[in-house]
Amino acid sequence: MSTNTTDPLIGRLIDGRYQVRSRIARGGMATVYLATDLRLERRVAIKVMHGHLADDTQYKARFIQEARSAARLAHPNVVNVYDQGQDADTAYLVMEYLPGITLRELLQEHPVLTTEQAMDIMDAILSGLAAAHRNGIVHRDLKPENVLLADDGRIKISDFGLARAATAQTATGNALLGTIAYLSPELVTRGVADARSDIYAVGIMLYEMLAGEQPFKGEQPFQIAQQHANDTVPTPSSKNPRVPAELDELVLWATARDPEQRPRDARAMLEQLHETQRILDSGQATPTQGVPMPTMVMPSGPLVPTPTPDAASESETQVLGTRVKQRPGPMALDSTSALSAAAEKRKSRGAWLFALVLVLATLAGATGWYFGSGPGSKVIIPVVTGEDVASATAILEKADLEVSPTPKHVFSVDVEAGKVAGTDPEAGTAVAHGGEVALLISDGPKALPMPKLAGKTEDAARDLIGDSFDVQESQYQFDPKVPENVVIVAWGVDKDGAKLDLGTVDEYWERQPVTLIVSLGPVPDVEGLTVDDAVQALQEKELLGSTSAGLHDFSDTVEKGKVIGYQPPEEGTAITKGTLLQLIVSDGVEQVEVPDVVGMTWRDAKPKLLELGFTLDYNTIADSFPSSTVKKISPEAGTMVDKGSTVKVNFNLSF
Predict the structure, then answer these.
(1) Average pLDDT over residues 52-67
(2) 24: closest CA among 37, 9, 39?
(3) Taking Cα atoms as reference points, which of 279, 227, 216 lies closest to residue 249?
(4) pLDDT of 1-50, one tens digit each?
(5) Would you tell me which CATH number, out of the four given (3.30.1360.70, 3.30.160.20, 1.10.150.130, 3.30.10.20), belongs to the domain 447-519?
(6) Rounded Cα–Cα distance for residues 221 and 239 (Å)
(7) Range 238-255 average pLDDT
């Protein structure tokens, strides 16, 4: 673990919850820190997007996509994602913290792993990847840097930043975002990816663990990409003779250039890995190099794949699953003339082979010139997604490509309007030098009809939304006016990212977030209950009740010591499950003192008595003679009575 005390984030409290402790790693898109979740009192890894990328909608969308993709997976071989959010200008992702190293660090220290070590690591990688493929997620960036080896022995896949939902062929304008060394041929040539593209990357990693190096090398990334597109991955036993043939075959199957020839997904490859493990454990493994093999002379007739009864005396040699007949070795030569003839024959054959090598070398050089820098050379279309038109044009022209004067317009969820959403042909496609490329200009997300969701049940609202919008996890709150399980309001965001009531709009943008606020019904009525009964009634609805605030009030209807109700929340604050409600306890009926109004005029005495809440019993004729004076009242002045009690008044009438 690396630390940097000068990093401004170290020591900072993010979102009022995550205390950053030290820096773990830094990548091209984000930095990962060790932090403490103060709320749950546990260590976490917090991934913070680089500040200069925070305003880039493409990178931010990819950052959020990582959280959503990983959050859909719950598997012991996938790093858990706990939280994602934005604190001021800091976009962050909170993940499970695994003290340990990456597979890349292990390979830097031990380039060649044993068969058992490689298969154990592959078992964990394929198990986690199978869960992703089962959930329709393609990782698209598998490499040793994204495989974590924990100190306690757990092995997990991380970094789903490039993951996308898998269709038959998931096309992307960012086809070359994955690391070049692990890109499948279809990603290089056509920019499409599906589960079999992940399998190719897994096969390259298995080769690297067994052979001690990557299969393809080059001074420039495009040279490596071209090898992935055009060359077959060699067997790891060509570098490490101790690798059994069964693992050679597994690597060749996973890295076939044609996706149709690979395992359909991680589950299929995992099953074959287990079968290979069974064969190796049983001692039936087929040797590759370093083991003496019988001399084999190819027969003049056709190869026979299986033995026949009349061939029982002949031995067999198995090469990658194909059996061929063996014939006895050549007869020993026993004469000087025969030996001389054989020597001349070998000499003649050596000269012929030398000439052939020269011819092939010349042809190879000519072919390399033709396809490398000559008329037949190709150039890989670079990624320009997210660039403005001028920048994208400059990048393409620098790559010796011609930009079409007529751009095409497309709708895009990930790229803001006016920026480049991709190219036609797609990025990663190999085209001739000077080839024409059309820019795809984003018109932003497509506007779609927005159904009215308020007043519908939650299930009905989700059915109305369908797959057109990105439905977030519903939020639930108590509402006295809306029945339980009915949508109160649906929230989205406008083009500036501000909160938007979707009930006020007729159209909304494709794949934009929609959050349903669903009613839990009214808060339980606790009036007239004892404090204990009121707390129990609230708990049954997953609410908390308390008298810790010491709230009391008088009540004409609720006897002293029982609950009148609860303190309303601040305006705009919703009551949700887990909310703490402060209960108001009754002090009974309020006591008031009868005032001394004897001798006062009725004009002055009446409003004073009414103001104190008394009910008056008097001869109403006094209202016509307000100058009359009060002669007597009952109860007498100074008596404490319940507020609202009746006071009887007698007058000295003045006519």
Answers:
(1) 66
(2) 9
(3) 279
(4) 444 446 788 889 998 899 999 988 877 678 899 999 998 889 999 988 87
(5) 3.30.10.20
(6) 23
(7) 96
- Say whether 141 is catalytic: yes
| CATH 3.30.10 assigned to 531-586 | yes
3-state helix, strand, coil split of the chain in percent (to 5) is 30, 25, 45
> Rounded mean pLDDT of 500-509?
93
Average pLDDT of the residues in 326-353 = 40
What is the location of CATH 3.30.200.20 in the chain? 13-96
Task: Tell me if 266 sits within 8 A of 132, measured CB to CB.
Answer: yes
Domain 100-281, CATH: 1.10.510.10
The 10s digit of each residue's pLDDT in 385-444 is 999 999 999 999 998 999 999 999 998 878 888 999 999 998 888 888 889 999 999 998
Strand partners, 487: 518
DSSP, residue by residue, 9-54: TTT-EETTTEEEEEEEEE-SSEEEEEEEETTTTEEEEEEEE-GGGT
Q: Which residue, 436, 376, 434, is CA-closest to 405?
A: 436
Q: How far apart are the first and last CA of the chain?
A: 101
In Å, what is the CA distance from 11 to each residue of 3, 4, 33, 98, 350?
A: 12, 11, 11, 20, 73
Rounded to an integer, what distance in angstroms lies between the CA atom of residue 113 and that of residue 117? Answer: 6
Say yes or no to pLDDT of 359 above 70.
Answer: no
Q: Which of 609, 610, 574, 577 is nearest to 594 (CA)?
A: 609
Predicted confidence (pLDDT) per residue in 605-636, tens digit: 999 999 999 999 999 999 999 999 999 999 99
Q: Which two tokens stand for residue 300?
A: 């003049």
CA distances from 312 to 84, 148, 247, 286, 433 (A): 68, 52, 29, 21, 60
Please report the DSSP string for 225-264 in residue order: HHHHHHSPPPPGGGT-TTS-HHHHHHHHHHT-SSGGGS-S
Among the listed residues 83, 89, 123, 141, the single catalytic one is: 141
Eight-class DSSP state of 384: -
Chain centre distance of CA 149 = 20
Packed helices 245-254 and 266-281: angle between N→C axes, nearest 10 degrees: 170
Structurally, at CATH architecture level, domain 591-652 sits in: 2-Layer Sandwich (3.30)
Q: Quick: pLDDT tens for 115-151.
A: 999 999 999 999 999 998 988 888 888 999 999 999 8
Q: Which numeric CATH code is attached to 13-96?
A: 3.30.200.20
For residue 642, count other CB atoms closer than 10 A to its CB: 14
CA-to-CA separations, 387 to 116, 382, 421, in angstroms, rounded = 47, 12, 8
Top CATH class, 378-442: alpha beta
Domain with CATH 3.30.10.20 in the chain: 378-442, 447-519, 591-652
Give the pLDDT confidence score for residue 162 in this predicted structure.
45
